[in-house]
Amino acid sequence: MAEHPHGPHLQDAEGHVRAVQSDLEYLRRKRLEPRILHFARRGLVSLADLLRAHAFLAAVPPERDGAGPPSLEARIRGLEDSLDALVTGIATATIPVVGEAVPIDDTRRERGDYDPFFVLAKRSYTGALEERLGQLERELGEAHLVLRAFTQALLATGRVTQEQLDARTRQLSSLGYRNGARIVARAWVDEDFKRRLLHEGRPAVRELDIPPGRLGRLGVAENTADVHHVVVCTLCSCYPHDLLGDPPWWYRTDEYKQRIVVDPRGTLREMFGLELPDGVRVKVHDSTSDVRWMVLPTRPSGSEGMTEEQLADLVTSESLVGTAPARSPLERSAEPTSAPGP
């Protein structure tokens, strides 16, 4: 969903470009190209299949954009949107093949997680900002071309059907705040992941194959026994949509924006019924076009022994911005079963 049309322009262009550079290299070296090699090693696709698919795609004329030269910000936003499409495309094209699934440790080994022999070479991006923008535009275009050829090869060889791809695309587009819930659940069960997430959110999130959206940086604030965090965007309605879905309706209201900054404890109590102990400090984080924030809620008691998927069901959209705690297992079991939505 697009943000407020009169929202602030990005201020840290360099930060946004560096983030795209880092994400693109991660996706290319850890997701896209290793996946193709993984399929090729098992005879699921061949290099000849990929060449035939490329020839088929080359016969389709590309769409032309008649607009004039885009601004610097428009180029950066275009890169971010293209990166999102690449993440979704990779997730769509890597549907497990029935009866030919490979243990997860094999896929990790073959992309170089355990053995440096398998690590693909890293590309460098040098020069001034606009030079690197041009290089990124070319590299992203090539990555999309490789992905399209891989997808077409899977279709042509009958490994997947168009119906399967379409169903996967619909599933990915309807996750709502489920991505945020997945991040929280992983942090609850994996201390190393949590440390990476709190240190630098965006690189940690990409480990879960979640599209970064138009994040420059992602700040993640952990609720503890001493500090409770809450998120607001005082200027417009900046929100990490790809991670948390659409914001709750009240997130955009002037009442919430004005009150939460002046009296966060009272606002949480009066607007949301969240009563915090006197000894707990409340810290407000202001999301901007360059830095988006989410809250890592405290893991509920009684959730010991639950699976990661079950833990994700305890997370609500409100708990991801700090206006409510995560649900307890008892609260979750008392509700009708439904998947988180927008």
Chain-averaged pLDDT: 83
Q: How much is the radius of gyration in Å?
A: 22 Å
Number of helices: 14
Strand content: 5-15%
The parts where pLDDT drops under 50 for at least 5 residues are 1-8, 97-102, 338-342
Largest sheet: 2 strands, parallel
- Name the overall outline: globular
Q: What is the topology, as strand order, of the major beta sheet?
A: 1-4
First-to-last CA distance: 10 Å
Could you characterize the architecture of this molecule?
By secondary structure, this protein is mostly helical. The chain folds into 2 domains: 13-173, no CATH class; 178-333, Alpha-Beta Complex (Nitrile Hydratase, Chain A), CATH 3.90.330. 49% of the residues lie in helices and 7% in strands. The protein has helices at 13-41, 47-58, 72-93, 104-110, 129-156, 162-173, 178-189, 191-199, 201-205, 241-244, 254-262, 264-272, 308-312, 329-333, and strands spanning 217-222, 227-232, 281-286, 291-296. 33% of the residues are buried.
What is the element layout, followed by pairings?
Blueprint: H1 13-41, H2 47-58, H3 72-93, H4 104-110, H5 129-156, H6 162-173, H7 178-189, H8 191-199, H9 201-205, E1 217-222, E2 227-232, H10 241-244, H11 254-262, H12 264-272, E3 281-286, E4 291-296, H13 308-312, H14 329-333
Parallel strand pairs: 1-4, 2-3
